[in-house]
Amino acid sequence: MEITLIDRRRPLRFALTAIMSLTWSAFAPRTDAAEAKPPNVGEEAPAFDLLNLDGDSVTLSSLRKEGPVVLIVLRGYPGYQCPLCTRQVGAFLAAAEKLRRSGATVAMIYPGPDENLRGRADEFIDDKTLPGGFDLLLDPGYEFTNAYDLRWDAPRETAYPSTFVIGKDGKVSFAKISKEHGGRTKASDILAKL
Description:
About 35% of the residues lie in helices and about 20% in strands. With about 190 residues, it is of the alpha/beta class. The chain has one domain (about 50-194): Glutaredoxin (3-Layer(aba) Sandwich), CATH 3.40.30.10. The chain has a 7-stranded mixed sheet. A hairpin with a 4-residue loop joins strand 1 (about 50) and strand 2 (about 55-60). It is globular and about 35 Å long. It starts with a helix and ends with a helix.
């Protein structure tokens, strides 16, 4: 009779253990290796393949062949064209000749939901002329933004304004992520690093 009693408790113990494990896993921090995180200095930058405004595919590996890549992550369209993004891009455009002489290419990422992202990006860049070595890349559905763990998931937000410099070897030599609208990387900061 004692064996029967133990046998009856085993399913209950198993069920309680399973429930406790599931409950804990719902609140435990994730530690799996596949979890995205922004690349730090010295780490390999995650690869990407995005379309520019001409509809051409642009990959990180193709950009790196020319020299260091300055990757500027903009806010995209959080319900308006961000004036701080406009100012930052203007400052980098003003430094275009110095950036070109340093051998760098500049890729600006414009994230947002799929719907009308291209139209919003056209609107953002409408009054600007992109010189050689500059490209505006679309990030529909935040694929790039999520891969770099830069999604600013709050009302009327899109991505944390960020700047990375990635060498020909694919490693990050400069990284700055702003968790606010300001605090942007200046072109002079990047020129000093190149």
